[in-house]
Write a structure and sequence with these properties.
Layout lengths: L2 H4 L16 H15 L6 H8 L3 H4 L6 H15 L9 H18 L15 H16 L4 H24 L5 H13 L7 H11 L8 H23 L23
Length: about 260
Amino acid sequence: MTAKESDGETGAAGRERGPRLTAQRVIDGAVVLADRIGTDALTIRRLADAIDVKPMTIYHHVPNKEAIIDGMVDRVFAEVDLPPTDTDWRSAILVRCTSMRGVLARHPWAAPLMETRTSPGPATLRHHDAVLGCFRRAGFSLELTGHAYAIVDSFLYGFAQQEATLPATSGDDMAELAASMAEQMPADLYPHLTEFTIDHVLQPGYDFGNEFDVGIELILDGLALAADEERSGWAGSSSGGENSDARRAVPTPSE
């Protein structure tokens, strides 16, 4: 019997084996492997090699790759700080979003999968419940809570994917990339792109990552305004009604 076949037990020759295989060890190993190769390249055979067991042994603990990915996503959610309940809603959501951004940076494969699971685990459910509770405790209606959660997470996941896939985001790498691209862009054909690249991206201290802080603050500003308007009666229901005509008019640039 080989070490892989023994599933963590001591063999006849008395050799020390690795830790006994469990579903959690399978999930943990899959997360580590996906961090290195992504989920598309993750197979049961490659996972078995990574955690030093035979492929069929894995099926004793998880039924298939989809179940493994369910567990991986739940493991990622478990790493994210929940919005604290001892502060205002805006600060609490910012804590959660900042934590989520860091977690997704550690696991760049995760962002496209976080909201795809049809069998969510306990950490996933706990996370969603805590975020919804944060908005509801702040007085957001169910409708506005839905808007807020969707808008915040659309920005959060989108930014994480963009940040993970950009060829460079700051420092010398970004400067070299921007300079190389600028050389290929005729300024007369692309005046605004040339201006942005030379006068902004190529300036000392530019860091694409800083756009996260600006973006999330703009979103939270908008949600705070929407919550205030809702409380003061400006916001009507999405289906119309007596308050729908009282919504504040958005001024045009000429006003």
